[in-house]
């Protein structure tokens, strides 16, 4: 069973909200966790082949001039495919990042085999008292390490990895006799909030 502490945690910065509208990735950042330790990282800007608007420049701090000199998607995604080979994947609001990973891989005729898990969906189940479930809020709420940089891919991926490991600790305390697998994570993420404690009790019996 794939363990939840052996994953690649990734984050995209993009030109907009959906590849279905022609939006493209402009940066990818990722950290590799093995036995719950960060053992490697990946970060690249990506030339999207078009200008980004001023909102995205201000939101991310990634300028058109920076992107003009960045490598194309084909080059970056080929490297990233090797980086994630054999690993399952985690992202905060994973549906967003999965859409862009799928789109960029499709553009470049690449494939991956790992399944996704979502730290945002998990936080809604196991951190129900948090003010909200945005990454920055959860980092502050759980007093997790951060360097104060948000909306850059590697910084966000690193913060998400700290959140993920904290979430695994929470689950391990609830289910001390179980190894926390991705199947357990995805089961919890799909349960109604009111059923979480009952699930813990079932796993403890």
Automatic annotation (TrEMBL):
InterPro entries assigned: DnaQ, Ribonucl_H, RNaseH-like_sf, RNaseH_sf
Catalytic activity: DNA(n) + a 2'-deoxyribonucleoside 5'-triphosphate = DNA(n+1) + diphosphate
CDD domains: DEDDh
Keywords tagged on the record: Exonuclease, Hydrolase, Nuclease
Record-given protein name: DNA-directed DNA polymerase
Enzyme class, broadest EC rank: transferase
Superkingdom of origin: Bacteria
Species lineage: Bacteria, Pseudomonadati, Pseudomonadota, Gammaproteobacteria, Alteromonadales
Span of domain Exonuclease: 6-173
Species for this entry: Shewanella ulleungensis
Claim: Metal-binding is one of the keywords in the record: no
Record EC number: 2.7.7.7
């Amino acid at each position: 069973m794939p363990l939840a502490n052996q994953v690649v945690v990734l984050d995209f910065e993009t030109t907009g909200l959906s590849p279905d509208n022609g939006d493209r990735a402009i940066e990818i950042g990722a950290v590799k966790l093995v036995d719950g330790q960060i053992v490697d990282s990946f970060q690249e800007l990506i030339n999207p082949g078009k200008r980004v608007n001023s909102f995205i420049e201000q939101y991310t701090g990634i300028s058109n001039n920076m992107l003009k000199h960045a490598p194309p998607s084909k080059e970056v995604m080929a490297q990233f495919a090797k980086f994630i080979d054999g690993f399952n994947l985690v992202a905060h609001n994973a549906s967003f990042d999965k859409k862009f990973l799928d789109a960029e891989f499709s553009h470049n005729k690449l494939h991956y085999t790992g399944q996704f898990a979502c730290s945002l969906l998990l936080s809604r189940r196991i951190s129900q008292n948090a003010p909200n479930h945005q990454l920055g809020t959860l980092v502050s709420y759980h007093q997790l390490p951060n360097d104060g940089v948000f909306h850059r891919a590697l910084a966000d991926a690193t913060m998400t990895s700290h959140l993920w490991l904290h979430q695994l600790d929470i689950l391990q305390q609830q289910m001390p006799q179980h190894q926390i697998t991705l199947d357990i994570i995805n089961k919890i993420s799909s349960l109604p909030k009111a059923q979480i404690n009952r699930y813990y009790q079932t796993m403890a019996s």
